[in-house]
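Quick start: read one record
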Amino acid sequence: MITIVCRELDPRSNERQSRIASQVVECFVGRLPPLRLLIFLDGTAWQEFREMNGVQNRGFFHPIDEFYFRKMDWRADLLEELLTRGSATGEIDYRFDAVIYLHNDACQSEDSLTMTLAHELQHFSQYGLDRTVWASNTLVTRLSRVVIERLGLRWIDIPIEFEARLVAKRISEKLLGRDRIARYIESRLKAHVTDGDAEDWALISGIKVSEEYDCKENTRALFRRIAHERGAIEQALRETSDLPDFASLDIDELILPIGPNSQ
């Protein structure tokens, strides 16, 4: 079940954004998990979130349950959508299994809304359909900044992030056309919000949407590449041990070569 909430003050903008979001969701028919998802298209920018995650941030995907929920300092209006309390017991009931949040400025143009939502929907798909691969990749993003810089990792080096960019570009071109999306990507490059953001858009520009991508095998390859940082990986795993999806990960299985032809 997918619920779309638009928070623009103008009803016509709400209708337009809801229509665009529904078209993107339709492109994922048959490829989404049977989980309850809230898509929250904000009428403002969540400034506190931006301050913590960078001005380049356009939105996020986040699981919702008793373990993941407390990892975020939720805004009051989001809490109203995500939770209900039993009138008799006062116990929290989670109305959704996951949420996709998009800042207002990511929703203003059809190009941006389409591409950003498609990206986050792919993360929802990864989370719901192959939790081990999703958690393994997310673990890498939780390595310390020093380790990430030492490894030279970029967002596009993380398999679930590459796949999200590939799928987002593919769906956007399908819905809006290749030339239009090329112009949109070029506009993001010229905006140069940060050096890292500009580099990311340059890499997205080079992605060929026709290519096949095996997220699971590329995850294995990533861990073989970073195996010499086992201590840092184990530290990141200890820091996420309160989340069952991470606690169940097997470090040896992640970093050991797979099969006789592994390198």
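The chain has 14 helices and six strands.
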